[in-house]
Amino acid sequence: MSITYLEAIREAQARLLREDDRVYIYGQDIAGKFGGAFKATKGLPEQFPGRVLNSPISEDAMVGTAIGAAIEGMRPIVEMQFADFSSIALNQILNNAGTMFYRTQIPCPITVRLPSGGTKGSGPFHSQSMEGLYAHYPGLVVVTPATVEDAYSMLIEAVAIDDPVIYCEHKYLYYHLKAEALPQENLPIGKARVVRPGRDLSIVTYSAMVHEALAVANEFSADGFEIEVVDLRSVKPLDTATVLASVARTGRLLCVGEAFPWGGVTAEVIARVTAEGFHLLDAAPQRVNAKDTPIPYHPNLWSEHRPNKASIAAKARQILSE
Amino acid sequence: MSITYLEAIREAQARLLREDDRVYIYGQDIAGKFGGAFKATKGLPEQFPGRVLNSPISEDAMVGTAIGAAIEGMRPIVEMQFADFSSIALNQILNNAGTMFYRTQIPCPITVRLPSGGTKGSGPFHSQSMEGLYAHYPGLVVVTPATVEDAYSMLIEAVAIDDPVIYCEHKYLYYHLKAEALPQENLPIGKARVVRPGRDLSIVTYSAMVHEALAVANEFSADGFEIEVVDLRSVKPLDTATVLASVARTGRLLCVGEAFPWGGVTAEVIARVTAEGFHLLDAAPQRVNAKDTPIPYHPNLWSEHRPNKASIAAKARQILSE
Amino acid sequence: MLQTAEPESKNKTKTPPHPKYLEAFRVMLQTRIFEDKLGALYRGGMIVGGVYLGRGQEAVSTACGLSLRKGDIFAPLIRDQAGRAAFGEPLLDPARTYLGSKMGPMRGRDGNIHRGRPQSGQLAMISHLGAMIPVVVGTLMAKRWRGEKDFVGMATIGEGGMQTGASHEGINIAAVEKVPFVLVATNNRFAYSTPNDRQFGCVDLIDRAAAYGYDGHTVDGTDLTACLEVIGNAVERARAGGAPQMVVANVLRLAGHGEHDDASYVPPEMRGESYARDSVKVAEELILEQELMTADEIRQLREEIAAEVNDAINTAQTDPSPRASEDDWRAMAQIDLVDQLS
Amino acid sequence: MLQTAEPESKNKTKTPPHPKYLEAFRVMLQTRIFEDKLGALYRGGMIVGGVYLGRGQEAVSTACGLSLRKGDIFAPLIRDQAGRAAFGEPLLDPARTYLGSKMGPMRGRDGNIHRGRPQSGQLAMISHLGAMIPVVVGTLMAKRWRGEKDFVGMATIGEGGMQTGASHEGINIAAVEKVPFVLVATNNRFAYSTPNDRQFGCVDLIDRAAAYGYDGHTVDGTDLTACLEVIGNAVERARAGGAPQMVVANVLRLAGHGEHDDASYVPPEMRGESYARDSVKVAEELILEQELMTADEIRQLREEIAAEVNDAINTAQTDPSPRASEDDWRAMAQIDLVDQLS
Ligand SMILES: Cc1ncc(C[n+]2csc(CCOP(=O)(O)OP(=O)(O)O)c2C)c(N)n1
Ligand SMILES: Cc1ncc(C[n+]2csc(CCOP(=O)(O)OP(=O)(O)O)c2C)c(N)n1
Ligand SMILES: [Mg+2]
Ligand SMILES: [Mg+2]
User: Fold this and answer.
1) Interface contact B251, partner A, CB < 8 A
2) Which of A199, B87, C249, D114 is most buried, with most CB under 10 Å away?
């Protein structure tokens, strides 16, 4: 058996629907035989009648209804067709779901799935990585699975969590990643993972960029540099301890993220490491992010807009040469 | 003559309306004798008939219309009643205004005024500081005036700028700050200002927190520590050079912001300083932000939720003792 | 108690125009007395934050709360002190919230009209207008899934709030999901200072009902009987499985937007319109005219209520305030998911 | 050229049912031929990104573009290849955009249906449905302030897009601002795969017109004459200073949502409905029947258009692609405001 990242998301949802009758899925075009723009719910509507529902093109209300259902004890999963359209639901997510528990002590266990990140030819409005917007506000858990196993186990866990979870699934990984089997157990949300040990430099990253970082690490290995790659897995809560432990081993830090360069995950990681582990660092910590423009549509432009092996390697080389 | 921060905003708008017939102001309750929830347009509707218009409660459309008018050559100012409600307009701001020039090469000169920040008893939805959300996305200028003079000159400049400007005016400063006169000239947007020179520690901050930082600096002066206070003025573009020059003088950095603690301005400043000025630092750079919960309504809670003199002073002492 | 109080009267010769009329009148009177007190406290600098009153909207709001019952969902808004009370909220909740007690439902974390008790079906509004509508829809979807029967959800909104995108999406999605939902929109002529002609382009807000596939009803919001009938009827239609219901009530807001606002933007001539009548006064006049209560009984009732109001205020004032050092500063329900920020 | 071409015919004995009928037919035919070509290129892997066709909506969309004139504002959407062409967009614009030329209006930075030329009144849509409506309103406010006369703005939308909050706010604000605005909503039965009953609760989308204070018009979107008349009339009413206008056109989308989609969710019986007719075929049949053109002339016209289409595609294919090294990577109009990120 071989399972893709996308299939893992589908299987996780199937299991959730099977095992927990408080779960339902709400989103655009996810019902019927169609099964979603990316087919993440394909087959589920038939298997679980009445629990995989098409919504109108009303992202704000989609999340609003999920909040209401959660108050009444349900465990809704909301699928955004693209992460980019969650900007329409941002108010419900930040101001209603994110404040609910603090204000009322009533938990708001909703999971919002955001098909995120860039793919070829998708352009400014179908490529965004929005984890930084959501993680900035209080009250939300924001996860960014980078592997098939994490896609599966973190979605299962997300729905079980009593807090709102923004589940950023990377569209580029949907078909590009395969695993042999679904995991029986896994690290909990909130724990980062050292995916490749090293001693010379820590690359701290998440989601699709984990794989770019790994490729760079392998290249550098040929030159005798051992790069450690840390997959954050969840960007909020952020596992500072694991990052610090890695930097303690390597003395050097490069943060890589696919989102826009001002603020966001990479800045937050660096601010934490320098606050708590300043003396662990032997060189200036650096970042590689996307460029500070909308995400271009043409692949020639897009492949340079996002961080890539070349830009990550260049920064890594710079840090290693210090 | 003595002019408040709020009056400076009103005077800037009066001058803009007087001198540039492409300017109009659009917002809720700003017209008629009423002149806005905070009276920032008081008197202007009578003076400039037909150019200060009440909008329906439709933040998304308010910004949408401004974008359209800007395409046709106007210079709209949009007043949000509270920054917090701009979450409804976020899609137009980020995805339409912010991408316009990159996509079409047509400039989008709109100014969106956000009455920002906390005041006593305002609670989770009338107190937010949203500069970090807007600065994260490409295509926008985000300014955060901390003085009466800047409130005036930066608003004049914002409207002249060919790009969309998010003008974060701090509600706490509306009446708390007074100046003798309006400035004839001023630093341009994009330049930070050293508002108090020092040699022992740089506190880099913006908006209302500049004044908290100054108060702390004055306290520390009695103990023989000279704290330099840098007012960023605009958080995007961010004047890294001025910040670095300050850190070069003091060797120590504390960033203070009123927004939520994950990501945002303070993380971005630290990431820049450590990337470019790592060897200038003699101690770990630190941050003081608001707490990671919604902004509480009761003053007893609110005054501890936001950064305050005590929490800033404690962090400053920690850094100075390293 | 609120739900049952019906003053006894030997002189009561006629039956009231609606079975809930006197019960409703008591709620209205309590609301008026309580809100007058809040206004006074505000002017005395005793309130933390702003005060937002429902003056002029007591009949509509009371009818909303009284038309619902336990197990229903109610999402009140700015001007629903009366509706909240009628739905069962104890006076102590608003008293504590306004006076900054840490024992109120929001424990100092949120204030005034943002209070609620979601666990009892009374949602706690966020400020962003329209946002609570889809939340009500979601609660109803959940109830249906759980197999509950005969429940209804209601949201209130102003004519200004109807212009938000959130309202639109929420109103439409209720019809798509075919849930038993009632929207009560009160057109009180102003959204803060903005009059109707800068708010919407349709002739009458009730033109929105057909646009969403709702049954539409218009009601004179100053007439308690009409409010009880029209809103009660709309609720029962929704409960019985009919289409979603939209009620548009016409009134004039008889206070500022908040107590900081003198409402000087209201043209004096509007005050003479029939929708500008004070529903509490109108109800009281009818009661006297129809001899449902005597003037004396009403005076007694007022005194009784005033004592209740004073009790609530006194309790709230002697309650402890929240303290920063006692707050757990935790936005997450799961303590293991609190982000460890330095 | 598109605006004037009218094939001469010695056999033309009758006058067309609408003065713009043959001009419109040419646009429709061009659109069909161009879009068929795009589909083929897509299947051949020659397109960068997705392809979104307007098949089934050519009559409505053409009527939109032809009802407008220079100085008007047009905010087309997904299915408006025809309307864009009719409003004056040269074929090279879509050809270059779809084929990833750096010489298209978006220079590789944005693709397919997101193209536009705001400086010529053709707005460049963002994806978020409904977002362009208030933008049109804003352009009209500006034109009025500048003292321009006799202009109109039009936005198109699908029945799915009508359910966004952005649409609602935009449609309402046009009425509040009393601008000469026309909304053409095409109900093509599906929003991506989602049918009408999961999209809105009203009986007919035209019930929305009164809700916003618009004049409402319904039109059979497969009937070119009707489209030209109804949409043309709506535009002229708006231009003359009437209320904003809403046209709801009924059709079936005769393609997938995009070319990646086989539209297998369309129930076969729907294909037999009258709204499922192919407006291009219907127009062609009418032309032959009424002897406005001969079959031969139509064949000639097809060939002429095919040559134009091939020219555009060829040019676009030989154009250089954008190169990352040549892009200035600048989102700001003012170079001094570019943030200097390390
Ligand atoms: C989305 C949003 N924008 C702005 C506000 C600020 N605001 C609070 S109440 C109000 C007026 C509401 O008017 P209406 O809906 O008619 O209700 P009323 O106050 O008249 O009862 C405004 C503009 C808000 N709460 N939400
Ligand atoms: C706010 C938003 N949500 C989701 C989408 C994704 N999306 C693109 S087109 C489409 C369907 C549109 O349906 P409709 O408005 O009926 O237009 P049609 O495609 O039928 O012409 C969807 C869901 C979007 N573009 N914008
Ligand atoms: Mg109102
Ligand atoms: Mg459609």
Assistant:
1) no
2) C249
Shortest CB distance from A293 goes to which of D161, D323, D331? D331
D134 interfaces chain B, CB cutoff of 8 Å: yes
Question: In terms of domains, do A153 and A35 share one?
Answer: yes
Residues 6+ apart with CB under 8 A from A60: A88, A89, A91, A92, C131, C134, C165, C166, C169, C170, D165
Question: Which residues in B20-133 belong to E strands, given as ranges?
Answer: 23-27, 52-54, 75-79, 111-116
As a whole-number percent, the residues of chain C with pLDDT over 90 amount to 95
Domain that holds residue A255: 193-320
Q: Are A135 and A71 in a shared domain?
A: yes
Specify the DSSP element, H or E, that contains D246.
strand D245-250
Give which of B307, B203, B184, B185 is closest to B246, Cα–Cα: B203
Q: Which residues in D lie closer than 8 A to residue A60 (C-beta atoms)? A: 165
Q: Please tell me the least confidently modeled range out of A166-170, C13-17, C93-97, D73-77.
A: C13-17
pLDDT at C13 (0 to 100): 58
- Indicate whether B150 and B228 sit together in one domain: no
Q: What fold characterizes domain C21-341?
A: Rossmann fold (3.40.50)
Cα–Cα distance for residue pair C229/B227, rounded to 1 Å: 69
Chain D residues 224-253 within an 8 A CB cutoff of chain C:
243-244
The answer to whether the beta carbons of residues D20 and D3 sit under 8 Å apart is: no
Residues in CB range of B14: below 8 A, 6 or more apart: B43, B44, B47, B48
B154 and B122 assigned to the same domain: yes
Which of D98, D112, D193 would you mutate first to test chain A, the one with the most A CBs within 10 A? D193
> Residue C175 and residue D208: Cβ atoms within 8 Å?
no
Q: Is A211 a catalytic residue?
A: no
Are residues B28 and C163, on separate chains, in Cβ contact within 8 Å?
no
**Global model pTM greater than 0.90:** yes
Residues A173 and A216 in one domain: no
Q: Count the Cβ atoms, other than its own, within 10 Å of residue C285.
A: 12
Interfacial D residues in 166-225 facing B (CB < 8 Å)? 166, 169-170, 172-173, 176-177
Domain boundaries, chain C: 21-341
Closest-approach residue (CA) in chain A for B290:
A138
Confirm if A190 and A163 have CB atoms less than 8 A apart.
no
Of A117, A145, A179, the domain-final residue: A179
Is residue B16 scored above 60 in pLDDT?
yes
Number of domains in chain A: 2
Identity at B140, one-letter amino acid code? L
Residue C176 pLDDT grade (very low, low, confident, very high; cuts 50, 70, 90): very high
Q: What is the pLDDT of residues D283-309, one digit of tens each?
A: 999 999 999 999 999 999 999 999 999
Q: Which of A124, A157, A179 represents a domain boundary (last residue)? A: A179
Tell me: do B166 and B202 sit in the same domain. Answer: no
DSSP tag of B282: S
Residues with CB under 6 A from ligand 2: A 28, 57, 59, 81, 85, 88; D 78-79, 127-129, 158-161, 164, 188, 190-192, 253, 257
Judge if A126 and A257 occupy the same domain: no
Residue A185 falls within a domain, yes or no?
Answer: no
Domain CATH code at residue B295: 3.40.50.920
CA of A53 to the centre of ligand 2 (A): 17
Write the CA distances from C44 to C41, C48, C54, C256, C261, integer angstroms.
Answer: 5, 11, 20, 17, 15
| D140-169 pLDDT tens trace | 999 999 999 999 999 999 999 999 999 999
ipTM over 0.95? The verdict is yes
d(CA A145, CA A167): 8
Query: What Cα–Cα distance (Å) separates residue B197 from each residue in A118, B109, B144, B227, B254?
Result: 45, 35, 21, 7, 15
**Cross-chain residue pair C175–D210, CB shorter than 8 Å:** no
Looking at the structure, do residues B150 and B27 belong to the same domain, yes or no? yes
Residue B96 lies in a domain: yes
